[in-house]
């Protein structure tokens, strides 16, 4: 047995590692089982030695709970994440379409282990298998790593950008030529992960789906930074978008039926100022990036939503509806 001084020194840390990994308040470990676990690692320990090691660990801030009895029972209760927090993370990974099936399985395993091996098994058994169409782009992790590094170092990146054809083959935009952009932030929206970039040529922000990016690389050229008035809080920026489709940011005023207040708060945030507009309707003004998806949202509730202004956006909405109507007119 390895009982020399070197292994005596690491024994307390090995005890902590075993208890943290394999125990919780519902699954304590007895002294004899702990001794056996140590023996599997080639480390011999007597009952009194384990007791003294655990006492030392507690004195040093490694909190190990104990239940006294004929054979003491030990466990680690404090975790970095609570079970509900871990469950939320598991559900988020399952629902995120930009994470591939392979990476989803790997992440689920790692996140579940944050609860310890015993509860981790229970959590994994209880997670819902979302019917989410997952990305097949296995380079997503590499892309994110390069993008985050570029944002932190304020460097530009180059990448190829593609769409899929009806046979699920990649079709690269710009005839396969690289995009060179100044990354500004990353945004998660509706199951997808986006890169927000500042385009100095047009003095505007643009979005790219990270799972549609390929061969991402950082280059030495310094990134262009947006002027101060264009720099934004990510949460507010995201609320102004519809499906991450960029458009001209405009303050619009909308009238809606009172039954849609929850839907308004869900989309624009609970701090949206809503005022009464009669017994049945309310009115609110928000900044949105006007796009076809915004017009689609205005129409999705039928007569329960009415765009009140500005006038030019109302005209655009009418043209949008006329285009849709014409599409179904008989020839």
What is this entry, summarized?
The chain has helices spanning 5-22, 31-40, 47-59, 83-95, 101-112, 117-126, 140-153, 234-239, 261-268, 292-300, 311-327, and strands at residues 29-30, 65-67, 73-75, 155-164, 170-172, 179-189, 192-199, 204-209, 213-222, 248-257, 274-276, 281-290, 305-309.
Topology:
Elements: H1 5-22, E1 29-30, H2 31-40, H3 47-59, E2 65-67, E3 73-75, H4 83-95, H5 101-112, H6 117-126, H7 140-153, E4 155-164, E5 170-172, E6 179-189, E7 192-199, E8 204-209, E9 213-222, H8 234-239, E10 248-257, H9 261-268, E11 274-276, E12 281-290, H10 292-300, E13 305-309, H11 311-327
Antiparallel strand pairs: 1-3, 2-3, 4-5, 4-6, 4-9, 6-7, 7-8, 10-12, 10-13, 11-12
Helix pairs in contact: 1-3, 4-5, 5-6
Rg on CA atoms, Å: 28 Å
**What would the average pLDDT be, to the nearest integer?**
82
Quickly count the helices. 11
Output the CATH class name of the largest domain: Mainly Beta
Strand content: 25-35%
Low-confidence stretches: none
Order of helices and strands: HEHHEEHHHHEEEEEEHEHEEHEH
Sketch the major β-sheet. 6 strands, antiparallel
Shape: elongated
Distance between the termini: 90 Å
* SS content category: alpha+beta
Q: What's the helical proportion of residues? A: 25-40%
Name of the CATH architecture of the largest domain: Roll
User: How many strands appear in the DSSP assignment?
Assistant: 13
């Amino acid at each position: 047995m390895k009982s020399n001084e070197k292994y005596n020194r690491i024994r307390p840390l090995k005890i902590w590692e075993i208890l943290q990994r394999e125990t919780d308040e519902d699954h304590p470990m007895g002294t004899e089982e702990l001794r056996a676990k140590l023996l599997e690692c080639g480390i011999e320990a007597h009952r009194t030695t384990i007791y003294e090691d655990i006492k030392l660990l507690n004195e040093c801030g490694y909190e190990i709970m104990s239940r006294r009895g004929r054979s003491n029972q030990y466990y680690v209760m404090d975790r970095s994440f609570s079970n509900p927090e871990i469950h939320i993370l598991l559900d988020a990974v399952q629902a995120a379409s930009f994470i591939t099936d392979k990476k989803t399985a790997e992440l689920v395993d790692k996140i579940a282990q944050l609860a310890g091996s015993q509860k981790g098994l229970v959590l994994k058994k209880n997670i819902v298998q979302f019917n989410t169409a997952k990305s097949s782009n296995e380079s997503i992790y590499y892309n994110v790593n390069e993008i985050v590094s570029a944002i932190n170092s304020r460097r530009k990146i180059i990448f190829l950008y593609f769409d899929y054809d009806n046979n699920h083959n990649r079709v690269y935009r710009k005839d396969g030529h690289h995009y060179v952009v100044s990354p500004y932030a990353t945004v998660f929206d509706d199951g997808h992960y986006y890169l927000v970039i500042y385009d100095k040529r047009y003095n505007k922000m643009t979005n790219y789906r990270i799972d549609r990016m390929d061969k991402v690389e950082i280059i030495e050229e310094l990134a262009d930074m947006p002027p101060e008035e264009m720099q934004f809080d990510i949460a507010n920026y995201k609320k102004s978008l519809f499906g991450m489709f960029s458009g001209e940011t405009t303050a619009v005023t909308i009238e809606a039926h009172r039954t849609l207040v929850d839907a308004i708060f869900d989309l624009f945030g609970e701090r949206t100022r809503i005022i009464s507009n009669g017994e049945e309707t309310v009115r609110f003004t928000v900044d949105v990036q006007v796009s076809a998806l915004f017009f689609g949202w205005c129409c999705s509730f039928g007569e329960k939503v009415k765009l009140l202004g500005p006038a030019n956006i109302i005209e655009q909405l009418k043209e949008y509806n006329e285009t849709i109507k014409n599409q179904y007119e008989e020839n």
